[in-house]
Design a protein that fits this description.
Elements: H1 7-20, H2 24-43, H3 45-56, H4 60-87, H5 94-110, H6 114-128, H7 133-162, H8 172-192, H9 195-211, H10 213-226
Helix pairs in contact: 4-5, 4-7, 5-6, 6-7, 9-10
Amino acid sequence: MPPQPDLKAVNGRAQDRRATRPGWVWWLGAVVLVTAALSLAIVNRHELVRATQLMARVSTPRLAVAMAFEAASIVCFAAVQRWLLHAGGVRLGLKGMTALAVAANAVAGALPGGAAFAAAWLYRQLRRREAGQVLAAAVLVVAGALSALGLFLLLVTGALTAGLGGRGAVLRPALAILALALGLGLALLVLTRSARVQVAAQRAWVGAGRRSRRVRQVQEALVRLVS
C-alpha cells in the first residue's frame, strides 16, 4: 500500500497558506487607497498635465547631475550620522545607515508633517541597533542641526554667486556678519590645533584667575558645572 499522507502536516500547510493570504481588510484598504488616488488625479488633472509639460522640458544631462548630487548628499548625511554613532560606541555600516536615511526621507516626503514621523521612525531604528536613548536623540539633533547649517551655507553661496541686487541687497549685512563669524570660527579652530596656543591660553586663563577674584569665581563655577 502506498504511504498515507500526514494529515496534520497537510492541514498545517493549508492553514499557513490561508494565514499568508491577504484578508478582506487588506483588500478593502487597497481599494480605498486606489480610489482616493484616482479621485485626486481626476480633480487635479490640470495640475498633472502642467507638471507633465514641465517635466518634458527638463534637460536629461542636468537631471542626471542633480540626481548624482542628491544621492551624494544623502550618503554624506548618512555618513555624518554614522560618525556620530561611532563616537557613541555604536558600530553601523555606511550601507545600512544610508538605507535608513533614504527610508526616513521617504517617510518625510510621503506623509503630512512627515519630518516628525521620520524622526520618530529613525529613532526607533537606531534604538533597535543598540543605540541608547541619549545617543539616538543626540544623533538626530546634531545631524539635523548640521544639515540645516549646510543648507543655509548653500543658500548663502548661491546668493553670493548669483549676485544681490534689488531686494536681495537687504541680505548683505547678514551675509557680512555670517562671513565674519565663519572666518573667526575657522581661525579659532586653526589656532586651537596648535599646542603652543593651547599652553599660552591655559597660562593666561590661570593668570587671570590669580589676578581677579571675579574671574576666579567664574572659573570655580565652570569647574562645578562640568564636574
